[in-house]
Automatic annotation (TrEMBL):
Its EC number is 1.3.3.3. Pathway: Porphyrin-containing compound metabolism; protoporphyrin-IX biosynthesis; protoporphyrinogen-IX from coproporphyrinogen-III (O2 route): step 1/1. GO terms for biological process: heme biosynthetic process. This is Oxygen-dependent coproporphyrinogen-III oxidase, mitochondrial. Pfam families: Coprogen_oxidas. The keyword Transmembrane applies. Keywords: Heme biosynthesis, Membrane, Oxidoreductase, Porphyrin biosynthesis, Transmembrane, Transmembrane helix. It comes from Umbra pygmaea. GO terms for molecular function: coproporphyrinogen oxidase activity. The chain crosses the membrane at residues 78-98. It catalyses: coproporphyrinogen III + O2 + 2 H(+) = protoporphyrinogen IX + 2 CO2 + 2 H2O. NCBIfam families: PRK05330.1.
Length: 446
């Protein structure tokens, strides 16, 4: 974030400038755009919604690929902030002497970065997989930066879910003897969520031939030494199965993979996505969900959302049923361009959407009533969810093919209950038939 530097100004002037900046930041960090779809929701529910926890922070910087125009709201923010700074400078000029006030991007000192990492780690659900001192020593490496991001994402999402449910996540830390480990956070049989899981894993070692074969099938050229491919993989993944059939299931996963080849060079890539699986279609929910994802994608490239939306529809397709798992979202894999820094920045933007794209939908339907028939339909749709995860999901396949993987964490994505009915087909003209038709012909929501 851009920082204002005030040279040779007394403490009172510095405090005034800081207050101006904080006032503007608070004014700009609103969430009206994300709550616009709540037009049928009561004012009471809106005002009780804990929006401040996930309101986007103002950043005075340009986004996206080289040559992309800076967003208008960023320019307006910079002008307003510059005006505030000028006002303060005008007041103090007649009282004290100062050299200049300028906008600059200031990098914290090494010691300050170490303190920031240690402070952040205390806000996580538990200490990170990697020792804090190691994260501090290797703070510039992508593996360390990605681990901090996934731990932060896990903590933010878990606490947002705990707030709406009233329950507490069980934090389960595990180790992998081949290298690395993970942290599984699971809330089961809560008031709102039948099963909610948010997992972090950081594993390393040598890639098995089966796992390497899966990657080669995707076009990866991997050259190991003596049949070995040292790797490091990490990610955060979550699947939430609510009790109420009018609250959708949500899934997200963001991951980083790094492989060291025979000559010492490293291949790296990012992958992930967020998608929604409702039991019943709600247009407002669908538009809101996709709009939040599109906004995050558009910060980096205008083609990201349309491309990754189509990729999501193709990926989460149950071929033996001829239908998608849900209404999609975004999905991407093997992302290694335009640069590692830009790819990481994009993944970070996506990870920041997991609360604002989902929690408003949960609050909107929190008190919806439902019938036994609607609950039965939810159970049938959950059966389809299980089929996709066990038959097609790439992450499940990789986990099962990796020695030392924790099966409980891999299968955390499965619902607590599900149902399979022989030759089930909803009657024509029903809400269930409408939902099934939509799953057989995905549509654009934005």
């Amino acid at each position: 974030m851009a920082t204002i530097v005030l040279h040779s100004i007394n403490r009172t002037a510095q405090t005034s400038a800081r207050k101006c900046f904080i006032q503007y930041s608070k004014g700009a960090s609103t969430v009206e755009s994300h709550l616009a779809f709540f037009h049928n929701t009561s004012i009471r529910r809106l005002t009780s919604f804990p929006a401040a926890r996930w309101a986007p922070k103002v950043r005075f910087m340009s986004y996206g690929i080289s040559g992309k125009t800076e967003p208008a709201r960023t320019k307006r923010g910079a002008l307003l902030f510059a005006g505030a700074a000028a006002t303060v400078a005008g007041i103090v000029t007649g009282v004290i002497h100062f050299q200049r006030a300028e906008m600059a991007s200031v990098s914290p000192k090494a010691g300050e970065e170490d303190m920031e990492i240690a402070a952040k780690c205390k806000t996580f659900m538990c200490p990170p997989c990697t020792d804090v001192k190691v994260l501090q020593q290797k703070k510039g490496e992508m593996c360390s930066r990605m681990e901090m991001l996934i731990m932060e994402t896990q903590a933010e999402f878990c606490r947002a879910l705990e707030e709406v449910d009233g329950g507490k996540f069980k934090v389960d830390r595990w180790e992998r003897k081949e290298g690395g480990g993970g942290i599984s956070c699971v809330l089961q049989d809560g008031k709102v969520f039948e099963k909610a899981g948010v997992n972090v894993s950081v594993v390393f070692g040598d890639l098995t031939e089966e796992a390497a074969k899966q990657m080669r099938s995707r076009g990866k050229v991997l050259k190991g030494k003596d049949g070995k491919l040292p790797f490091c993989a990490m990610g955060v993944s979550s699947v939430i199965h609510p009790k109420n059939p009018h609250i959708p299931t949500v899934h997200f996963n963001y991951r980083y993979f790094e492989i060291e080849e025979e000559d010492g060079t490293k291949q790296w890539w990012f992958g992930g996505g967020t998608d929604l699986t409702p039991t019943y279609i709600n247009k407002g929910d669908s538009v809101h969900f996709h709009n939040v994802l599109k906004e995050a994608c558009d910060k980096h490239h205008p083609q990201y959302y349309p491309d990754f939306k189509k990729w999501c529809d193709r990926y989460f397709f149950i071929r033996h049923r001829g239908e998608t798992r849900g209404i999609g979202g975004i999905f991407f894999d093997d992302l290694d361009s335009p640069s590692q820094e830009e790819a990481f920045s994009f993944v970070k933007s996506c990870a920041k959407t997991v609360v604002p794209c989902y929690l408003p939908i949960v609050y909107k339907h929190l008190n919806d009533t439902f019938s036994p028939e609607e609950k039965d339909w939810q159970q049938v749709r959950r059966g389809r969810y299980v089929e996709f995860n066990l038959v097609y999901d790439r992450g499940v396949k990789f986990g099962l093919a990796t020695p030392g993987s924790r099966i409980e964490s891999i299968l955390m994505s499965l619902p607590l209950t599900a149902k399979w009915e022989y030759m089930h087909e909803p009657p024509k003209g029903t809400k269930e038939a409408e939902m099934l038709e939509l799953l057989r012909s995905p549509k654009d929501w934005v």
